[in-house]
Specification:
alpha/beta
């Protein structure tokens, strides 16, 4: 296992795709059930969730979530939230506009993070809910109008909890599965998402929401001034192996490296775009209850040594650095709970994001981040994707084209196939997968 915390990370962290069987899989033939706002048959815990926000009862708000999720809200709400009404505290009122109960057979297509739901829960139900919000001040996280969310509920020891809760950023998938409401409100909410993908933060009425300018901090600027010899020429051609009979994994690696396509986006950086990275993003620090604007290199330097071993090969560490930054970019574009409740894109909690520890950088991991400064991944359509990863097993390369990177696998490739660089490693896992229909692309964005 990777470090002591990794045994917990693999079972809990939402960065990972787990194979825990969902308790409700037995109901694969369950039909979609539409629920009207006036005659809601949503679970009581969802009503409790709505009431807690309307009553500004934040203790009850936290208690609607499962014990696992409650730990994400330690110290919630913080002093700054109370004073400035940020995050979920900006909500003046909330009500159910429309809702559906979804079957479980396609639920992971709709929301992959529901794979993390523990099989210890019973009576699991999945709900697609349009919440009608009135807010104190509109932001990229909450706006006036209907916002669509996915909720999973379940029981543990007879107590009902919200065990999964995610913002919806892929209404098209719901349409394809026949789960959409096809309402005017849903179309307006989908427009908010589509505009966000272009870097335009708009409200329900398609009007721009004024955002606070995020300036790149001095440390990030300094990190971007890397020494030229640490850079990697992505256009270099790697020699073919002399092995006559090549094992399947080697053939896959050779195929992976052939898709290399470094490209540079010289246009203006659009904030929170799916095709161009922001300079910084908002990270919630749980220990201090504060939000910091942090640059991607600074962030990666304080995550990489806590997710990869600093003693691993440099190409493995570079692959890790690019994966960490790409994951952060995706969350900056499509922020998830609980970060959005704090008014942030990510939090530092390793249970549901990446393991950020200030001042934890090591020489080897810092050098790896420097070597790939400014480099991210996009899929074959040129858009950022959810760069999920898991520990994997020592001595195992992991699944080719599986859409989930194996941390141990990156080290396996770097050790056994030194002729391949970090791009090949990343391509081996993410190209030709549910993350990218063709070769992934890397470059300075």
């Amino acid at each position: 296992m990777l470090k002591m915390f990794k045994s917990v990370f693999v079972s809990c962290c939402m960065v990972s795709i787990l194979t825990i069987p969902l308790a409700s899989n037995a109901f694969a033939t369950e039909s979609v059930e539409t629920i009207s706002a006036s005659n809601s048959i949503l679970p009581t815990v969802v009503s409790d969730y709505v009431d807690s926000i309307n009553n500004r009862d934040w203790n009850s708000f936290v208690q609607t979530y499962s014990p696992e999720r409650q730990q994400f809200y330690q110290g919630f709400p913080n002093k700054e939230q109370k004073e400035n009404k940020t995050g979920i505290l900006s909500v003046e009122s909330i009500s159910v506009f429309e809702a559906k109960k979804l079957p479980s057979n396609n639920i992971l297509k709709v929301e992959p993070y529901f794979a993390d739901i523990s099989s210890a829960y019973t009576d699991i139900g999945y709900y697609y809910v349009g919440f009608n919000y009135t807010v104190n001040k509109e932001s990229e996280f909450f706006y006036n109008g209907v916002k669509y969310e996915l909720i999973a509920t379940g029981k543990l020891n007879g107590q009902e909890y919200i065990i999964g809760h995610e913002n919806v950023y892929n209404i098209d998938e719901l349409v394809a599965l026949g789960y959409a409401f096809n309402s005017a409100a849903e179309q307006q909410a989908n427009n908010v998402v589509k505009e966000r993908e272009q870097g335009h933060i708009v409200n329900f009425e398609n009007k721009s929401i004024q955002q606070t300018t995020i300036k790149e901090d001095a440390q990030h600027e300094e990190l971007n001034q890397i020494v030229e010899e640490n850079s990697i020429d992505l256009n270099q051609d790697f020699p073919e192996t002399t092995t006559i009979k090549k094992p399947r994994e080697q053939l896959n690696l050779e195929k992976a490296k052939n898709g290399i396509n470094a490209q540079s986006n010289s246009g203006d950086i659009q904030p929170l775009s799916a095709t161009s990275t922001p300079s910084t993003f908002k990270l919630y620090i749980t220990g201090s209850g504060t939000i910091t604007n942090i640059g991607f290199d600074t962030y990666a330097k304080n995550v990489l040594p806590n997710e990869w071993y600093g003693s691993w090969k440099s190409e493995s560490l570079k692959a890790g650095a690019v994966t960490i930054k790409t994951y952060a970019w995706y969350n900056a574009t499509y922020p998830r709970k609980p970060a959005t409740d704090y008014g942030a894109h990510l939090t530092d909690r390793w249970q549901n994001y990446q393991h950020y520890v200030p001042n934890s950088g090591q020489t080897a991991t810092n050098n790896a981040v420097n070597a790939v400064s400014g480099i991210f991944m996009v899929n074959s359509d040129g858009k950022v994707f959810d760069a999920q990863y898991r520990a994997g097993s020592e001595g195992d390369i992991g699944t080719a084209w599986g859409g989930v990177l194996s941390q141990w696998g990156t080290q396996y490739i770097a050790q056994n196939y030194p002729e391949y660089n970090y791009y090949t490693i990343l391509s081996y896992y993410y190209s030709f997968s549910d993350k990218s229909s063709g070769y992934i692309q890397t470059g300075n964005y």
